[in-house]
Specification:
alpha/beta, Inosine-uridine Nucleoside N-ribohydrolase, Chain A, 14 strands
């Protein structure tokens, strides 16, 4: 029996399942797209399943709805105490044009009423990381690299005597990012999360001191979710369902939204081997945000393994998870 238990412990990471809950900081631009909502629902579902532990939710987008939106979703999943951080600058500032964020802020409770009430993003990163065991935190970024670049440049403060680069190197296990892409030419692409703050993307991809796993544009593009969610009559009074309902209607979309951000969360917690393959790549980020493949093996980059429709089912099943009653 002892040998069997040891075998299971050894096999878990190889099969994609963590041996213990993965401690996570989620960095999101939640607003210009709604796959971020799906990603947050996924992450909260995985915490309810004992696979993840959310340490903080942080916005790299200064748009006015981002803090309250994070608060709505954390509160809905019975975790209103999760710290929320916001980039305290005028840019990036990407609006929620489909008005789904405004709708759920109007209709659901959220103790954080405005971005002004949230902690500054880098300060929250430093406070959170400094309190964690070494090499224990997975950072998931499903937005711009603004906060991460600022974190790397940060100086010692009341939370840690280390520089930002030193603190990340000591406390972070890996960075998992929905970013970049390999275009039809097989060499380069423009990808939203990189383009919006190309300077920050260049800095992070060049200086980040831990392993980096990238879920590129073409991975989530083929994974469509949201349609089953909004048709599920058993789900009532859900900001996740309402966000997708409003946004899909605004987009005149009946097939589902691309699941870029959800793929990053899924592999950050469960590993990629059940769902994807990977290849080693290196990117150079041009001034205009175009990412170009160059020689090197700096990053692990997801490639397709099982059919996207099967990945979509796994993701949407988790997106439809509802919190238990308190």
């Amino acid at each position: 029996m002892k040998n069997f238990c040891l075998l299971i412990l050894w096999l878990c990471p190889l099969l994609g399942f963590p041996q213990r809950a993965t401690s996570v900081i989620l960095d999101t631009d939640i607003g210009p797209d709604y796959d971020d909502v799906g990603a947050m629902a996924l992450l909260h579902a995985l915490e309810d399943l004992g696979e993840a532990k959310i340490l903080a939710t942080i916005s790299c987008n200064a748009f006015e709805t981002t803090g309250p939106t994070l608060s709505v979703l954390n509160t809905y999943f019975h975790r209103p105490e999760i710290p929320i951080g916001i980039v305290k600058s005028t840019v990036p500032n990407e609006a929620c044009k489909q008005l789904w964020a405004q709708a759920i802020i109007r209709d659901y409770p959220h103790p954080l009423k405005s971005n002004a009430e949230a902690m500054e993003a880098v300060s929250l990163y430093r406070k959170t990381l400094s309190s964690q065991p070494d090499k224990s935190v997975t950072v998931i970024t499903i937005g711009f690299f603004t906060n991460l670049a600022n974190l790397l440049s940060s100086k010692p403060d009341e939370f840690s005597s280390l520089t930002g680069n030193e603190l990340v190197g000591k406390k972070v296990k890996q960075l998992v990012s929905m970013a970049a892409g390999i275009g039809k030419d097989g060499k380069s692409a423009y990808e939203f999360n990189v383009v919006i703050d190309a300077g920050a993307a260049r800095k992070v991809l060049a200086e980040w001191p831990t392993p980096i796993l990238l879920s590129g544009f073409e991975i989530g593009e083929k994974v469509l979710t949201g349609s089953r969610l909004i048709k599920n009559e058993k789900i009532k009074q859900s900001p996740v369902k309402d966000a997708y309902r409003v946004a899909l209607k605004a987009d005149n979309n009946t097939v589902g939204r691309n699941s870029w951000d959800q793929t990053a969360v899924l592999v950050a917690i469960r590993g990629y081997s059940l769902y994807f393959n990977s290849r080693k790549v290196n990117f150079e980020i041009n001034a205009d945000g175009r990412n170009v493949l160059i020689p090197g093996e700096n990053f692990a980059y997801l490639t397709e393994k099982i059919p996207p429709v099967e990945v979509a089912k796994v993701i949407e099943d988790l997106m439809m998870h509802q919190p238990g009653k308190k």
